[in-house]
Design a protein that fits this description.
homodimer; 202 residues; Arc Repressor Mutant, subunit A; Tetracycline Repressor, domain 2; 2 domains; 10 helices; elongated; DNA-binding; DNA-binding (chains A, B)
Chain lengths: 202, 202
DNA sequence: TTTAGACTTTCTAACTAAAAAAGTCAAATG
DNA sequence: CATTTGACTTTTTTAGTTAGAAAGTCTAAA
């Protein structure tokens, strides 16, 4: 979950921020704490990041990018589209569990989330749609899938699985997901993917 | 959406409460207002309903029952299971739009909703799962569907479509759903149903 | 049995002040 | 020059506080 130790302050700040944001969320993490973690003063943080918001966005973006890159790297491989979907969803669930606090913002959003974060998460969603589009393209090119409306089906795909994730959070008041909830979600993901693929297969 | 005018006070209260809860939600509706609508004193309301919470629950339950009964009535008809799913989802969307304010509680729930309402909505969800189970049963009995795990698949069914609905609300800060969002949801419902049925068909 | 006026209790919205956290900057360090 | 910081200002959050509103109660009357 937390990778290599970095050396430069920029990365050290991101690392510490990531840990704290994941554990305590945006609101319950202070700039002073992050600075303290790596033996810097708060003022120094502002040398690297203009605002707390900026820092948070950077953490979220980077984590998401790492996640997407992992899948994207397989796009040009021989792995078939269906298997790519499987891998994508598998990793997506792990990402969901580990970074629930980051995306828990999307829960706060229901009330009164600053538009800037709404835009951030909307962008991440769009990037995932783009990735799914590419997988669909690959499947169509390989004659695995029908020649369908890629834009629509990738949007649908993301909507279904995001929806399933939300069902887990919606009832709860804590962010932590139990093993039972997680394994049910896993099973639902498998079933839903099976249906989705069957629905678009040639 | 709002049916026959009732005569007894019990029903008059429910009618007025329904209208106000749908339009303004639970918090923005006062017992005095409801009483005023039908020319009763607030104290009289408490003769029929012990608490505001009780009244609200009664309204939600009744509306949901009306919705479910409509579909349940078709269970013993010649309408095939697949068509029942179609009808169910069609009505479910209308119900969703018209009573968004009622179920908007499920949004408030994310923060700090009293467990009693959480239980209420959980019960409604369970009743819908039960209905879907019956449709599945019918399909299996008619040899339309595979002999699958009914409990699991009805839960999955509800999860998928509830999830899709949530995707619409999650971004918004208002409860009102635009025509564009609604028609996309309609289309997603159709696609998802198609896949679901294809996935379990014999 | 049903209703309502007058009542009490509970909740909420709007303030406040104090504390905490965000954010700034000139000077210092190396 | 790039980086860091202590001391600073500004903004936000929190914890009271209070007044008004709304929930909820009760007794007497129709």
């Amino acid at each position: 979950m937390f990778n290599i130790e970095s050396t430069d302050n920029f990365s050290l700040i991101l690392d510490s921020a990531k840990k704290r944001f994941c554990r305590y969320g945006l609101k319950k993490t202070t700039m002073t704490e992050i600075a303290g973690d790596i033996g810097l003063s708060k003022a120094s943080l502002y040398y690297y990041f203009s605002t707390k918001e900026e820092l948070f966005k950077e953490v979220v973006k980077q984590e998401h990018k790492t996640f997407l890159n992992e899948i994207e790297g397989l796009l040009s491989s021989v792995v078939p589209a269906e298997e790519l979907f499987h891998i994508y969803l598998e990793r997506r669930l792990i990402y969901f569990r580990d970074f629930a606090h980051l995306s828990s913002l999307s829960l706060e959003s229901i009330n009164s989330l600053k538009p800037v974060y709404a835009r951030l998460f909307e962008n991440l969603r769009k990037e995932e749609i783009r990735l799914v589009s590419k997988i669909l393209e690959k499947g169509i090119a390989a004659q695995d899938f029908e020649n369908l409306d890629i834009a629509y089906y990738s949007q649908l795909f993301i909507a279904i699985f995001q929806g399933l994730r939300h069902n887990v959070l919606i009832k709860k008041d804590t962010i932590n997901i139990t093993e039972i909830e997680y394994s049910l979600l896993q099973r639902q993901y498998e079933s839903a993917l099976k249906m989705f693929v069957k629905g678009i297969k040639k």
